[in-house]
Amino acid sequence: MYNLIFLTDLTGPNLDPYVRLNEAQLFHAWEPQPGLFIAESPKVIERAIRAGYQPASLLVEDKALKRDLTDLGREMAANHTKGLNQTPIYVVNSELLQQLSGYNLLRGALAAMHRVERPSLPNFLATMPTEQPRIAVLENVVNPTNIGAIFRSAAALGIDGIIVTSDSADPLYRRASRVAMGTVFQVPWTYVDAKIWRTNGVRLLQQFGYQTAAMALRHNTVNIDDPRLKMAHKLAIILGSEGPGLIENTIMQSDFTIKIPMAPGVDSLNVAAASALAFWELGKQKIK
């Protein structure tokens, strides 16, 4: 038996996460405990549940109710969540859904999901594989679309984990998780405080045995297919902000600066496109 709640308007406070709270407000909703985020579409919700996230509630269109609940109920049962019978499921018609921002992009159900505590950097690195781990660091990458695209490439191309500086866009923002097709729940990741990263982040990685490769153009830049990169036992690929790129301190502290060779007249790629090429070249030995 589902906990179905049929609504004729969107005014109730229980719908605030879907209607009235922005991303930042959801992030800070239950401080000091982790807040909420919105997962869009059954596929993204399923992947979040599979990764251990618990839904606080769901918002479902009436005409898609049976389809969406069949798939989601099966996923929740398989992953030992509290079950849909205990989760409020708000059911609305298509006319009400059209009042929601981004309605034309939606693909079925929405879920307000509970966030989880992210591990500390040492604990995160301790979970990485022992055989040639390849991780990415996203420094001040502020566009959620780029974040989502980077996660999707990381999932597909053998990257074991991602470290996101706290001044970057949140990987659980709706646009990021949608672009990532839910792979933000598949690739292990954590935050590092931006102030700590800017002063000592690269050295922290080096203390854990990682060689660091900053994607930047400098006089000593090496090509992305340099054999030393492939031979590194542990490698961290560092990608910078969409405009200015990596900060100088990151570049100076890194073991390598690396570049993607390009045709004359072009000196750089969008960070998401650059990440896909870097992940393919530096992680492909892990793809079977």
Q: Specify the biggest β-sheet.
A: 7 strands, parallel
* Average pLDDT over all residues: 87
**Gross CATH architecture of the largest domain:** 3-Layer(aba) Sandwich
Q: Which CATH first-tier class of the largest domain would you pick?
A: Alpha Beta
Question: How many separate helices?
Answer: 12
Strand content: 15-25%
How is this structure best described in words?
The chain is an alpha/beta fold and 288 residues long. The chain folds into two domains: 4-114, 2-Layer Sandwich (60s Ribosomal Protein L30, Chain: A), CATH 3.30.1330.30; 121-286, 3-Layer(aba) Sandwich (Alpha/beta knot). Helices cover 34% and strands 19% of the residues. The chain has helices spanning 16-19, 23-27, 42-50, 65-78, 94-97, 121-126, 144-156, 174-179, 194-207, 227-231, 248-253, 271-283; strands at 4-6, 36-40, 55-61, 89-92, 110-114, 134-138, 161-165, 189-192, 211-215, 222-223, 235-239, 256-259. The chain has a seven-stranded parallel beta sheet with strand order 8-7-6-11-9-12-10. A five-stranded mixed beta sheet has the order 1-4-3-5-2. Helix 7 packs parallel to helix 12. It is elongated. Residues 135-279 form the tRNA/rRNA methyltransferase SpoU type domain.
